[in-house]
Amino acid sequence: MNRRAYVPADTAWHLISLRPQGQHDTLRSAASRAGARTVALSPWRLALRNDPLTRDRLVEAAQCDRVIFTSPAAADSAARMLPLGTLRPGTVVAVGEGTARVLRRRGAMDVQAPTRMDSEGMLALPCMQSLQGLRVALITAPGGRGMIAAQVSERGAELLRVDVYERVPLPVSAASIARLQTLPEPAVLAVSSGEALETVLPQLPPALLQRWQQTPVVTASARLAALAHTLGFQHVSTAAGPLPAQLVEAARAAAHPSPR
Predict the structure, then answer these.
(1) What's the number of CA atoms in the CB half-sphere (13 Å) around residue 164?
(2) Taking a C-beta distance cutoff of 8 angstroms, is the pair 184, 217 a contact?
(3) Is 160 left (phi over 0), alpha (psi -120 to 50) or beta?
(4) For residue 129, which of 157, 109, 99 has the smallest C-alpha distance?
(5) Model confidence over 155-168: pLDDT tens digits?
(6) 182 pLDDT higher than 60
């Protein structure tokens, strides 16, 4: 269950994080350097799928022509079951720099990652253009990243999907709702996952949901910005990318907009 977030009353501004349970630290550190206190509201926890079938599929994935990792969690989970140094150089593809950093730290070599750190950016990499007849492994979790799987298949590749972890939903506690209802302004909501946002919103009381929809939101991509608008948010801006420092920079600008 989500624990009640403690937010001192004298904090200059607040950043609401929807990261998985136990994975708020990097965003919290970046927010602290920018004078903000992070309010952790985890929609789920991540659970490793460490079973014989998953391990066998990972071994098969290591032989593919491209091995795509869709998140830092996917890279870290895979590394707990397969030495990533055994992956052939030139085959490893990351959806963004955060994922690439985990892969390199875990021993993968010659990792390719886009400057634009999202599915569209990854699919635009030169190594992802000529896939006809190739075998492509997608290292991921159930749900999300459907664009990658669809595009890989459309480009003529044989797709092997390996779900190496899963998201276990966590209820938004009554204490967390009470804290959010009294959270002083300015507050900014950071969104790097559409699924996380769509998981939390139905659990909010109507009055709190309406307040959130008037709260500034910073998203990790234009696609997520469009989703936020669709869900009724009125003040949406897009960060330069999904890295914690990028999200915090955009959030600080949203919390303290320059006078016109």
Answers:
(1) 26
(2) no
(3) beta
(4) 157
(5) 999 999 999 999 99
(6) yes
CA 255 from chain centre, in angstroms, equals 22
Burial (CB count <10 Å: 0-12, 13-18, 19+), residue 101: middle
**Size (the chain), residues:** 260
Burial profile 188-206: b = 16 or more Cβ within 10 angstroms, e = fewer? bbbbbbbebbebbbebbee
pTM value? 0.83
User: Percent of the chain at pLDDT above 90?
Assistant: 84
Task: Read off the tokens for 19.
Answer: 């990261």
The stretch 185-205 carries a mean pLDDT of 95
Chain centre to alpha carbon of residue 3? 21
Surface-to-core class of residue 237, CB atoms within 10 Å of its CB (0-12 exposed, 13-18 middle, 19+ buried): middle
Residue type, 192: S
DSSP secondary structure letter of residue 205:
-
Pairing, β 44-48 against β 165-169: antiparallel
Cα distance between residue 67 and residue 59, in whole Å: 11
Closest CA to 241 of 138, 97, 132: 97
